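Support request from a user on the community tier.

User writes: "When I paste my structure tokens into the form, the page sometimes reloads and wipes my input. The last time it worked, I copied everything first. Here is what I submitted, just in case something in the input itself triggers the reload:"
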């Protein structure tokens, strides 16, 4: 890890972990006695101004390429920007970090509004993230947002996701609208935006555990794994693609949210480790 990527280590009775100032990226979290829950490539190097494909990147104020042409960079302007650590609380059962960034810190012609963004990360027996958007200007604005969580798995080809049966989704690989039948399984590149806000469980027979994801204020579940052909084109994934699946919470595409002047809205994401 480069010196440019200031890191805040967590070594508590309940867990270990790490949070970066760059992107307010929660890079690691593992409850005591458990395998790591957040994935990152072995030997990962975090370079200044680049967001790694690892941990929990913050996508804001657009997701992917966004809903309008010409938006850059992909996934918005905050995921590789330096945030400020404004609070840290070390308690007996959890460590909480609070990072903040504003429109004074990151200017872009693609989002000419006044705003403030706060990410509170609580690392303990569970991982809980709260992303709060504040409109500090005089005009309403619309944002897409997502917590792009890379969950570590033994082998994605043996994993199944429970909790999305019967849910409609946009398949970004095929460009088609579909409805999920049964549990989600993986046999090739997967990139789907589900219209669902209920719990999802990653059932992992290799690591012998379930990862239960719950959210509040998030209308979508985004499920992604690039598979072999796409992964080899990404230098911080490469041939390690079988060992993660992204199960994201967000408000994207037609579920983008509007924030009025003087208002704020919060989206939360929580993951816990359960036995099979």
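"...and here is what came back when it finally went through:"
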């Amino acid at each position: 890890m480069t010196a440019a990527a200031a890191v805040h280590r967590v070594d508590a009775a309940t867990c270990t972990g790490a949070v970066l100032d760059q992107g307010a990226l929660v890079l690691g979290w593992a409850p005591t006695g458990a395998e790591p829950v957040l994935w990152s490539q072995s030997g990962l190097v975090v370079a200044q101004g680049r967001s790694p494909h690892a941990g929990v990147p913050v996508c804001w104020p657009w997701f992917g390429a966004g809903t309008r042409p010409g938006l850059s960079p992909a996934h918005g302007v905050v995921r590789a920007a330096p945030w400020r650590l404004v609070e840290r609380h070390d308690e007996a059962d959890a460590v909480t970090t609070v990072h903040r960034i504003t429109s004074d810190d990151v200017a872009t012609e693609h989002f000419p509004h006044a705003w403030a963004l706060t990410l509170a990360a609580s690392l303990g027996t569970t991982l809980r993230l709260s992303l709060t958007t504040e409109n500090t200007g005089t005009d309403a604005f619309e944002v897409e947002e997502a917590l792009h969580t890379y969950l570590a798995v033994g082998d994605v080809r043996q994993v199944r996701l429970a909790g999305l049966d019967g849910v409609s989704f946009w398949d970004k690989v095929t460009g088609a609208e579909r409805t999920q039948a049964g549990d989600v399984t993986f046999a090739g590149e997967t990139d789907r935006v589900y219209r669902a806000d209920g719990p999802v469980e990653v059932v992992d027979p290799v690591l012998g555990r379930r990862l239960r994801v719950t959210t509040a204020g998030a209308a979508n579940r985004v499920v992604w794994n690039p598979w072999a052909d796409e992964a080899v084109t990404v230098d911080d994934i490469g041939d390690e693609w079988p060992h993660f699946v992204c199960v994201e919470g967000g408000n994207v595409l037609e579920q983008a949210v509007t924030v009025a002047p003087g208002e704020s809205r919060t989206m939360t994401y929580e993951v816990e480790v359960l036995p099979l």
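Agent notes: The reload is a front-end session timeout and is unrelated to the input. The chain has one domain: 7-152+187-196+211-271. The chain has a mean pLDDT of 96. Escalated to web team.
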